[in-house]
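**User:**
Make up any protein.

**Assistant:**
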Amino acid sequence: MLDRVAHLRTLATTKAQTLGTLVQAGVVRPARPDKLVAVAGALVRWGPTPAAGYKAASLRYPDEVAIIDELGTLTFSEVHERSNALANELAGDGIGAGDGVAIMCRNHRGFVEAVTACSKLGADALFLNTASSGPQLADVAERERPKALIYDQEFGEALAVAGRRRKRYVAWSEPGQKETVPLVEELIARGSREDLTPPERRGKAIILTSGTTGTPKGASRSQPKSLDPAAALLSRIPLRARQKTMIAAPLFHSWGFAHFTLGLSLSSTYVLRRRFDPEAILSLTAQHECAALVVVPVMIQRILELPDEVLDRYDLSKVRAVPVSGSALAGPLSERWMDHFGENLFNLYGSTEVAWATIATPKDLREAPGTAGRPPRGTVVKLLDEDGHEVPRGQTGRIFVGNEMQFEGYTGGGNKDLIGGLMSSGDVGHFDEAGRLFVDGRDDDMIVSGGENVFPAEVEELLTGHDAVGDVAVFGVEDEAFGQRLKAVVVLRDGRSTDAEELRAYVKANLAGYKVPREFEFIEELPRTSTGKVLKRELKDS
């Protein structure tokens, strides 16, 4: 009985905090009674889904801009009606609740409309990485068995095998190029714009892991049951309703998709560009007076590589938040960004499987560069040893996370390690004295060199702070004498020079001797995934 009372009190407190955050963010605001009833009805019927998001926004802000992309603008009512038309046409082609629809699109309206149409049908949306090869896509399609593919014309050749005996639709085509596959725009043009009946089964989002160690796995996640997770993020990152958000991070990735779904609760206007170009992103962010710029760390790196006179050309004073995630954010990089653009950087640590774990505010990043921050409301993070016991503060342990957004398991079978309801992120880290998390590396990245444990991430962080180093990857290679030794692959900044002897001395002056790479290699560019993670297996094989 006491446990139930305590649970009810905790639940009531959570709901009160959620409501307070949503009011502060402008999600909950005064409106005409008839509109409030209609919006509430949409949320009850559809739940917290993309279908509900655009239905509700079309009632509250029908003529306000929802999407700005290279084709122009769409209002909320247009997105709602166009996704209705697409969903009705897909239903006419035999696609319904529980069917899989693979989506391989860059950042543009076609991605948004495809996802929303799937939501209205109760179909599962499978997000394909735009950097995947034909064989990878074929493997994913064989495992996931989607009924249909919606993709940009440029990916037609890569999807040739994956698309066999499946319905196919092209979401983006280049002017003047013929296409034998039906165009999404054609389906929208002829489809009924009438509202659909909510499906008995809500569709899932299936996001692929980064695939840095092999074929990407499918991570299945149902839509959240409430707005609590969105409120938890909004309590730490100052995003507000009806503001413009430049989503530069790929929408198919968990970080870009998280801001797509978060933006639905805020009725955000999305500013989208299909391909990342550092100056173009700055220009669009300034031109549209965006309040948020969503990026992955390598995008910040590419922007900061621009000359100062180019950076100063664009007014980003309206940007209140630059949420960044997807890979490690080096301390020197965050400091350079805030020195130039102000205290607006928020570093979120998480994974496709556990969603988010911690958030570092600008204050955290100033006080403890390189930190991943603290858990937001509703999230638990513990560091455990190999026996499942918590490690003392300051010591390294495996990172385990608990929240409402955990994935449901890999679609091909299997799961992450679970201990006490908490899920492994696959990383190891430590808490500092202030309770801020630092991620030391992957739990399988640690190498043993001469009997000493070394995490390459610590060495990478240090080398990133060297004036001549623009990019770096550190990993272990076999060594007859030491078992393993560290190798560093370095990309120099434009116009700078250094050599292995200088960098070796630099590491030795700042870290223990056994952490000094014995081998340095200099190359033009590191191989990365579309979200910025370094493909170390390619470096090891080269």
Summary: The chain has three domains: 30-341, 345-442, 447-541.
